[in-house]
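Q: What residues go here?
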């Protein structure tokens, strides 16, 4: 049996249905990024349910912040 651990927190993922893939990449490709622009490309293949929840909730928080700034 293959043991899969979360690449973020290291927790053992016992159920494959609780295993997530997280990825972020430039829409135009890394080769055409502006000079000095940080390359945020990131792919994490094995993420546990808890970390996936945290990442999802954090992105939702960012969206909420954006919505509030538009209202003002
Ligand atoms: Zn994790």
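A:
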């Amino acid at each position: 049996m293959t043991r899969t651990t979360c690449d973020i927190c290291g927790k053992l993922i016992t159920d494959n249905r609780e295993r997530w893939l997280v990825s972020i990449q430039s829409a135009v490709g890394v080769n055409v990024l502006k000079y000095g622009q940080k390359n945020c490309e990131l792919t994490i293949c094995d993420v546990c349910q808890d970390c996936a929840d945290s990442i999802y909730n954090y992105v939702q928080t960012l969206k909420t912040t954006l919505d509030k700034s538009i209202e003002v």
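A: Context that may help when evaluating the design: The mean pLDDT is 89. The chain is about 30% helix and 25% strand.
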